[in-house]
Write a structure and sequence with these properties.
The complex is a heterodimer of chains A (322) and B (464). Chain A is an alpha/beta fold and 322 residues long. Chain A has 14 helices and 9 strands. Chain A has a 5-stranded parallel sheet, sandwiched between helices. Chain A has a two-stranded antiparallel sheet with strand order 4-8. In chain A, strand 5 and strand 6 form a beta hairpin. In chain A, helix 3 packs across helix 9. The longest helix of chain A is centred in the first third of the chain and has 17 residues. Chain A is globular. Chain B starts with a strand and ends in a 25-residue tail after the last helix. By secondary structure, chain B is α+β, with helices and mostly antiparallel strands. In chain B, 36% of the residues lie in helices and 19% in strands. In chain B, a hairpin with a 5-residue loop joins strand 7 and strand 8. Chain B has one domain: Cytochrome-c3 Hydrogenase, chain B, CATH 1.10.645.10. A 3-stranded antiparallel sheet of chain B has the order 1-2-3. In chain B, 61% of the residues are buried. The chains are: A alpha/beta (322), B alpha+beta (464). The interface between A and B is large, with 97 and 111 residues. Bound molecules: iron/sulfur cluster. Iron/sulfur cluster (SF4) binds next to helix 11 and helix 12 of chain A. Chain B: Keywords: Iron, Magnesium, Metal-binding, Nickel, Oxidoreductase. Chain B: Its main location: other. Chain B: Belongs to the [NiFe]/[NiFeSe] hydrogenase large subunit family.
Chain lengths: 322, 464
């Protein structure tokens, strides 16, 4: 709105009764503020079927710390983990913000979405009449969001929640929202830098460059193996004899050669260590086929696939309804 | 006045998804059902895998207490493989376990519970707080809000200690059967000591006085949310060559009678859980009539028992209060302070040396059960194996004790019994009062992911 038009509006309504001026101006100001307020990303965060490890990992972010992320980077409008509101108040907030910020909010989904039994293996809330399933909530909100971010491997690809035999029929968010782009920030859990960095990219430069699994190249472009501190051991075929050794962990089950992530140089929790530095194998937790292609965890990569145990059928003992 | 249904859903500020369906009559809660609305099926997932995968896989049951699952799975494997634990391994394992406790308890108090008592700034994620019973004066309130943000750093530092020795957190890598794969060295021990110093400072100058302040200002909560005095602990911080010594003793407390826990007295009930027997196998059944939760009820000698910091502290003579909402909050803080002191001692006892790990290769048992307390209380892992493959894996989490649905006889779980009978003087206080009591149990519903019975599998007495 032009300045002249604005002052004209003010002048013509200045003497009017019943707050007509306020009523006319407020929506305009609000619109303008929202338009200019590019400094914070409005976020709606849904927790579905996972272990909650991704919100804990998010709390471990340093530079910026969680407090700074919440005050300066994002407006966390709905989050089962962090919000002060509770019960129906919380659900009302979800309804309000999803329409107020329609097409402008970022939907963060933490966890896989179970499809079996009409999604009843995960409900984000119950109302007096019916459950609100994760399937329903993610489908609805996913189609209203500007960006959809799947945080963690469960939300990205199904992860541990969808590991065999996957009796809940769990899938990643991309399979529920097949008609739109889902940014996958995989990891079990996600490294807070990968997640906060992705949010920062959305905020500052828009959509980041993605790999073929729709993960930000910024963090997932290269394999663990490529930058591993123990690569010289690998190249010299100097393999660890046991866990705890300082040589290459390939012999102990390392999946680093087929896992994309920057753990070797980024490391974890204020950048202090990562699994190979802890003398254990990388278990490939950012992978699309984690964990089934990584188990048995301590078996060398070239033997893993052929090692699948035949299905052992086991009937549980009698468990009565008392 | 007629009955009024209160649908408290979602209960926010916790791990996982929880709803409470309550009935209010004449200003009193006359019925309450705690409902977990998530199911993942971890036991099925564990079948037909190598039993050594358990440490990494079962940590994925729960993000806020993952190390506890890794620990109890490691003890289980120590027994199956007959490992001997070196002293360094014992201290290092318990340093890591203690650090995981600190992050949990600090996060619970400040990030989850505090907004029940303290007015938070009116901006996301605190907007619409609707705290209808805020009693702190403005200065105290302001100070505690500041501590919320300091708590974020203190908890992050606790996880930094886990990562220093464990490679990452959550879901650490080094605490495995046979010991720990990371060596205690001058630099990482020193770094851990300095991180611990900062955490200690925070606990002493913020957590302890803040707990005391809230306990004083909200003193009536020592009379609200009272459960029957039936408390259970498996014991905490396992030491010894065979993990046979528990630093905090386990116990069964009924009124004033204390006895040792016996695993053969543990049973499970699915009466009101969304599960049904199907051809001798337990399957989820989300349409089961009358059922209202994915949590399976765990019972001891046929009765419900409360588990968690309050049970541990009372059983070990470190706290002599009651079983109310404020007692649960208070005992958790006492435990936090105790753990910071223990952890410093254990760090100091570490001797520089190689990674304290000695894994044996051949299982000497085909089944084993191991127990320990996690942050929220009793945790049990049990496995039957063939060669080194899992035939059956069972997990009973603290959530199965505190948050179970009622059984066939209508007995109430600790959380339900704490809620029923609660007075609600004004309707606008309903969620505030219910929220305080529910959160005093430190709810975690990610953990309510388990299936299968134990009956017949476990017959030994706990060595405590
Ligand atoms: S430890 Fe793993 S990632 Fe590192 S060089 Fe060896 S195989 Fe590659």
């Amino acid at each position: 709105m032009k300045k002249e038009k604005f002052s004209e509006l003010c002048r013509s309504l200045a003497q009017s009764k019943e707050h007509e001026l306020t009523r006319a101006i407020l929506p305009i100001v609000k619109k303008q503020m929202l338009k200019n307020n590019k400094s914070k990303l409005p976020v709606i965060w849904l927790e579905t079927n996972d272990s909650g490890d991704n919100n804990i990992s998010f709390m471990n972010t340093t530079f910026p710390y969680l407090g700074q992320v919440l005050s300066d980077m994002i407006d966390l409008l709905y989050s089962n983990t962090f919000m002060a509101a509770q019960g129906p108040d919380a659900l009302n907030i979800l309804n309000q913000v999803s329409s107020l910020y329609r097409s402008r909010f970022t939907l963060v989904v933490e966890g896989a979405i179970p499809l079996n039994s009409n999604g009843l293996f995960c409900s984000i809330a119950l109302t007096p009449n019916r459950p609100v399933t994760a399937l329903e909530a993610v489908t609805t909100l996913g189609n209203q969001a500007q960006y959809v971010v799947a945080i963690g491997t469960c939300a990205s690809f199904g992860g541990v929640t969808a590991a065999r035999p996957n009796i809940t029929g769990s899938v990643g968010v991309r399979d529920v929202l097949s008609s739109r782009k889902v940014i996958n920030v995989s990891g079990c859990p996600v490294n807070p830098d990968w997640f906060v960095g992705t949010l920062a990219h959305l905020l500052m430069y828009g959509l980041p460059e993605l790999d073929k699994l729709n993960r930000p190249n910024l963090f997932y472009e290269y394999t663990i193996h490529r930058h591993c501190q123990r690569r010289s051991y690998f190249d010299n075929k100097d393999f660890a004899e046991k866990l705890g050794d300082i040589e290459c962990m390939f012999s102990q089950g390392c999946v680093g050669p087929r896992t994309n992530a920057d753990c070797p140089y980024r490391q974890w929790v204020n950048y202090v260590s990562w699994p190979v530095k802890a003398n254990t194998p990388c278990i490939g937790c950012t992978n699309e086929d984690f964990p089934d292609a990584s188990t048995p965890f301590f078996m060398p990569l070239n033997e893993k696939v052929s090692s699948r145990a035949p299905q052992v059928l086991f009937k549980g003992k009698e468990l009565s309804d008392e | 006045m007629s009955k009024q249904r209160v649908m408290f859903s979602p209960v926010t500020r916790l791990s996982g998804l929880l709803s409470v369906d309550a009935v209010l009559e004449k200003g009193k809660i006359i019925d309450a059902k705690a409902s977990s609305t998530m199911f993942r099926g971890f036991e099925q997932l564990m079948r037909d895998r190598k039993v050594t995968d358990a440490v990494y896989l079962t940590q994925r049951v729960c993000g806020i207490c993952s190390l506890a699952h890794g620990a109890v799975a490691s003890y289980l494997l120590d027994e199956i493989y007959d490992n001997n634990l070196s002293e360094n391994a014992q201290y290092l394992r318990n340093v890591m376990y203690a650090a995981e406790f600190l992050q949990n308890h600090i996060r619970h108090f400040y990030l989850f519970s505090m907004p029940d008592f303290v007015k938070m700034p009116e901006r996301p994620p605190f907007q619409g707080q609707n705290l209808t019973d805020a009693r702190l004066n403005p200065e105290d309130n302001q100070r505690l809000v500041g501590h919320y943000f300091e708590a974020i750093k203190a908890a992050q530092r606790a996880h930094e200690i886990v990562a220093l020795f464990g490679g990452k957190a959550p879901h650490q890598h080094s605490f495995l059967h046979g010991g720990v794969t990371v060596a205690p060295t001058a630099d990482n021990v020193n770094r851990a000591v300095f991180l611990l110093d900062a955490i200690c400072n925070f606990v002493k100058s913020c957590l302890v006085p803040d707990t005391e302040l809230i306990a004083k200002v909200y003193h009536d909560y020592f009379k609200i949310g009272i459960t029957p005095r039936r408390l259970l602990s498996f014991g905490l911080f396992r030491f010894g060559l065979k993990n046979e010594v528990y630093y905090f003793k386990g116990g069964v407390l009924e009124g004033n009678n204390l006895s040792l826990p016996r695993l053969d007295l543990i049973s499970e009930s699915i009466t009101n859980s969304w599960f049904a027997m199907n051809n001798g196998d337990l399957q989820p059944d989300p349409h089961k009539a009358r059922a209202y939760s994915y949590v399976i009820a765990a019972k001891y000698a046929g009765q419900y028992f409360q588990v968690g910091p309050l049970a541990r502290m009372i059983i070990n003579g470190r706290y002599n209060g009651g079983t109310s909402t404020m007692d649960r909050i208070y005992a958790r803080t006492i435990e936090t302070l105790l753990i910071t002191e223990l952890m410093r001692d254990w760090l100091m006892r570490l001797q520089p040396g190689p990674p304290p790990l000695a894994q044996k290769d051949t299982p000497i048992k085909t089944q084993a059960t191991s127990v320990v307390d996690s942050m929220r209380g009793c945790l049990l892992h049990s496995a039957i194996i063939q060669d080194d493959q899992v035939v059956k894996y069972n997990i009973i989490t603290p959530t199965c004790w505190n948050f179970s649905p009622r059984d066939a006889y209508g007995q109430y779980s600790p959380v339900e019994s704490a809620l029923i009978g609660t007075e609600i003087p004004r309707p606008d206080l309903t969620y505030t009062i219910l929220g305080r009591t529910v959160r005093s149990f430190d709810p975690c519903l990610n953990c309510g992911t388990h299936v299968l019975d134990l009956k017949g599998n476990v017959k030994q007495e706990l060595m405590i």
